Amino acid sequence: MTRLTPPRIINPRVESLRKKLASIDEMIFRDRGGGEASRLAVKYGYRDYIVARLIAALGNVAEVEELLEWNEKPLPETIRCNDYLIPCSDLVERLEQKGFTLSGIPWIPEGIEVVDAPMSVGATHEYLRGYYYIQDPGSMSVTPLLDPKPGEIIVDMAAAPGGKASHILQLARDRALLVAVEANRKRVRALRSNLQRLGFTSYIIHRMDSRLLPKRIPGLRASADKVLLDAPSSGEGIIRKDPSRKTSRGPEDLYYIHWLQLDMLYTGIELLKPGGILVYAACSTSPEEGELVISRILDLRNDVEVARLDYRIGSPGLDSYEYAELRGEARGCIRLWPHRHGTEGFFICGLRRKT
Amino acid sequence: MRAKKEDVVRLRPAAHEEEAIIAKFLRLVGVAVNPFKGGIYILDIEGARYRDAFYLPVKLRSLVGRGVAAYSGGLYLGSIEDRRLKPGLPLARALKPLCSVAAKCVKLTPRGEQLFLYGRTVEGYNIVGWKPGYVIVLAPDGEAIGWGYGDMRRAGDPSRNLILKPLKDLGWYLRRGG
């Protein structure tokens, strides 16, 4: 049996729950395979356990095969127009004059698909001027759900390279107060560069483990209007972009990531003021990174509830899963599936801190 | 053990001397009154010869935190090195509205813009309204695209005497990552 090693957990209540659930987790996070899962895993080049869990989540082998087929298609190249600096119609006109063929993304007003490009989208003068950000369609669907408003204190707990952080300031017209946090030294440079290029100024970047925020900046505890946690994930949702994810992680990694996500989420709620909204996102199709995280945070804290967000795209979250017990409230979250929505795989959930 | 570069970073209010360095640069580009006075914060980077300077609006200052590893924030003004300010690209964008009143700005032709964004010196016939010294460089449509230094060549074709040397251009975002 694979040895399950947790991350260093900062919140004592999370650590206590982890210990309590250790034997259950041995079952949930064990390596799985056999039967249809192994057949499809061989056919599409996955580790068996990923396919086995997809079958358990979707409950339908044919649909899983459709998903795996979709994962073979590269993601379309998409950009997010920065309408803080330029009207999107002007950006489209400028790029079309340069020979780009563009198409709008129906559910994101600022989203543009690059159908054909005469040059790299990262090398145009418009890019250098900060008129757009290169971002995948699922990723640019997350921040509007947070509904950032001018004057709000908003924390982005895993902010690099800055796609969602810059989207927060774009939607709030650079008038929200953004605390963008990133632990990784190299990635924090990209975050700073992107926020500067896109013309935003209403932010502070902290390079630290965001789980330390309540201790390091006590004034932030229970004071954020909104928190975005785009959690580190297994990346199972971005196989269309990075096929190495089919085999690069094992169930032991999923276990590590699950507890890191839960620990970060626990901290995120600590930062929220009563009535505040947290949007949790993970670019994964795995229920262990989605509904199971939400179910466990609801078990851990009675001061939080699932918030219904204004979804324009997506399927409801799962409320049952063969390998783990899920809370029914998780159905109020959403999932983006490559084969249903044409995006990356994403799990998104709104949580409200009760007043 | 010596701390790695960028490991120990703190945003702190600028010292009087640092504010003076920034004010002096602003005067060089025609901005007589420092609009950032009182809100300038400095990021000390252990082991580095430079310090980064930012303008933080009042509301942001409370989010800096004491003793916290803040990495960046607000409007990036530039870096201070050898008692001089090397201006940042966001500062050019922030000062652009002053081009019509006080700030020294030069506009480039489309060809001039292309050369400038490749980090190349631009010659006079690609510059509209050349000015000497530090200037904000504008694209043909009036957008700020960086900082340059207006200079003169002493020999050669007189029509090519006036030049603009690039100091920092938007291509920096591709070449160096901000």
In percent, how much strand structure appears in the residues of chain B? 25-35%
* Poorly predicted segments of chain A: none
Structural class of chain A: alpha/beta
Q: Helix amount of chain B, in percent?
A: 10-25%
Kindly state the percentage of residues in helix of chain A. Answer: 25-40%
Number of helices of chain A: 14
Instruction: Quote the average pLDDT of chain B.
Output: 88
Q: Give the termini separation of chain B.
A: 29 Å
Q: Which structural class is indicated by helix and strand composition of chain B?
A: alpha+beta
Number of E-type strands of chain B: 12
Say how many strands of chain A there are.
13
Largest interface: A-B, 31 and 38 residues
- Cα(first) to Cα(last) distance of chain A is 44 Å
What is the N-to-C succession of helices and strands of chain A?
Answer: HHHHHEHEEHEHEHEHEHEHEHEEEHE
Shape of chain B: elongated
> What's the total helix number of chain B?
5
Oligomer: heterodimer
Largest sheet properties of chain A: 9 strands, mixed
Global Rg of chain A: 20 Å
| Largest sheet, spatial ordering of strands of chain B | 8-12-11-10-7-9
Provide a descriptive summary of the structure in words:
The complex is a heterodimer of chains A (355) and B (178). With 355 residues, chain A is an alpha/beta fold. Chain A contains 14 helices and 13 strands. Helix content of chain A is 35%, strand content 19%. In chain A, strands 5, 6, 7, 8, 9, 10, 11, 12 and 13 form a 9-stranded mixed β-sheet that branches. In chain A, strands 2-3-1-4 form a 4-stranded antiparallel β-sheet, covered by helices on one side. In chain A, strand 8, helix 12 and strand 9 form a beta-alpha-beta unit. In chain A, helix 3 packs across helix 4. The termini of chain A are far apart. Chain B is elongated, with a radius of gyration of 18 Å. Chain B folds into 2 domains: 83 residues; 81 residues, Archaeosine Trna-guanine Transglycosylase, Chain: A, domain 4, CATH 2.30.130. By secondary structure, chain B is an alpha+beta fold. Chain B is 20% helix and 35% strand. In chain B, a hairpin with a 2-residue loop joins strand 5 and strand 6. Classes of the chains: A alpha/beta (355), B alpha+beta (178). At the A-B interface, helix 10 and strand 7 of A face strand 4 and helix 3 of B. Strand 7 of chain A pairs antiparallel with strand 4 of chain B, so a sheet runs across the interface.
